Amino acid sequence: MRKLMLATILLGAAAAFAAVNAAPAPAPGASATLGLDINQPIAVNADSFLADLNGETGTYTGNVIVNQGPVRLHADRVTLLAPGGRATRMEAQGHVIVDSPSGQALGDNGVYEVAEQRLRLTGNVVLTKDANVMRGNTLEVAMDTGLARMTGGGATPVAGQPPGQPQGRVQGLFVPAQRAGTPPSGTPPRP
């Protein structure tokens, strides 16, 4: 009976993870980091799910897609750690993509620590919003304050880095928005 209860808790915790734990209200003055609405239902799709009752973990594998409102997480594998039936950590591995109204974040791996309310993406991290792009090796986001830090990873080259650029540094490309009535550069003005 205990194992059946634990399996039910793990399955329920996987579905309720983001709603209950993953997106606290932002601190005063901070913006909603991902545009996540914790009142929205959570849908998880994967090729398979494995509950480890003794290890108190649940693992989704194979083209994992987690949706909640306008936020979508893609990964090859997502593992939920739920000791005592309470979600404490979510690990996303392989081709991690987070799409939200605030932009898109890509990385090789991601970890969300529930108690600390911290999200960490590692390995070939790319942030995009419209035509603006930032690249680095690690991104850490404090969900409670909305503060984010990106690091370049020392001497390790960043994937997609243009030749001749310093290696292992944070890089950003910011494209100014076009003002109304102003033609894009290189386009002659209309008569």
Description:
The protein has 191 residues and is mainly beta. The protein has a single domain, classed as lipopolysaccharide transport protein A fold (Sandwich), CATH 2.60.450.10. It has one helix spanning 2-22, and strands at 42-45, 48-52, 57-68, 71-81, 89-100, 103-113, 118-129, 132-142, 147-151, 171-173. Strands 1, 2, 3, 4, 5, 6, 7, 8, 9 and 10 form a ten-stranded antiparallel beta sheet that branches. A hairpin with a 2-residue loop joins strand 3 (57-68) and strand 4 (71-81). The protein is globular.
Number of domains: 1
SS strand fraction = over 45%
**Overall 3D form:** globular
Structural class: mainly beta
Q: State the fourth-level CATH superfamily.
A: Lipopolysaccharide (LPS) transport protein A like domain
How many helices does DSSP assign?
A: 1
Order of helices and strands: HEEEEEEEEEE
* Overall number of strands: 10
CATH topology: lipopolysaccharide transport protein A fold
The level 1 CATH classification is Mainly Beta
Radius of gyration: 19 Å
Portion in helices: 10-25%
* Shape-level CATH architecture: Sandwich
Arithmetic mean pLDDT: 76
Low-confidence stretches: 1-32
How widely separated are the two ends?
79 Å
Largest sheet: 10 strands, antiparallel
Oligomeric grouping of the chains: single chain
What are the salient characteristics of this protein?
11% helix; 1 helix; disordered N terminus; mainly beta; 10 strands; single chain; globular; lipopolysaccharide transport protein A fold; 45% strand; 191 residues; ten-stranded antiparallel beta sheet
